[in-house]
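#structure-requests
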Amino acid sequence: MSKYAFGVDVGGTTVKLGLFNDEGQVLDKWEIPTVKDNGGEKVLPDIAASIKNKMQEKSITAADLVGVGIGAPGAVNAEGFMVNGAVNIGWGSFDLAETLKKELDLPVTVKAGNDANVAALGEMWQGGGKGYSNLVAVTLGTGVGGGIIIDGRILTGTNGAGGEIGHIHIEDNETEVCGCKNKGCLEQYASATGITRLANRRLAKDDAPSMLRGGEISAKTVFDAVKAGDKVAIEIAEQFGEYLGKGLAAVASVVDPQIFVIGGGVSKAGDILFKYIEPSYKRCAFGPCKQTKFALAKLGNDAGIYGAAALVLK
């Protein structure tokens, strides 16, 4: 008889949920709004109610259910405890896994993790990192997120902050402040907003002709211009790649992954990213790590629900 699991990915606007069988196939997926009123007190009860409704709809009993995994935007330690809360939801520090288990009121396993770490687990299980047990997933979005998997297990760290590669210090001369309150973090140059920052700085430097001038500046427009052969855009891409390659080389020297899986909105540029990341990476990486593979993520916005389900199925 098939067994089932639910994967839950809590975001600031919506909560994504997925129903999986024990072979890793998603059978159904849906979303509910993230109600952040009163410190997000309704989020977990809403998730529990949605899961119970889906179980009733699909005629799934507690005996059929292996468990529920949940990923949330904040530091979550190995025991499923949110160490510093989730600011964009209104949560403080609390036992996320145990609280959801109480809301479900079902005799099933509930496990919790940081959303980026959980997404990395999803990519290892059924995505761009399938077939590997040691990987680093890098999400290039508004910021730079990361998840580290060692021997098939999430590297959580003491405070649930393992994998925060976006906040590796990479530039001593930065004057602008990162969202983490430090200066010179990797995500200030390698995220979508970071690429826009690099582009605006380069365009302000001189009057060199570029198709980027006079239009919207974004990571997408930069890499579209790169593909069109725009020399200024290529300079921006080279600077982006220099920072990211150097940062990932530092990560590799510590965790020695088999593969880096690159996801997030910036990854939609495609394999051309590797042309700019790998030279810097290979130059800076420790000898045995120089041949680490690079691949694009495959699960997109579903990586979180896959990884959450993997928390209880793997």
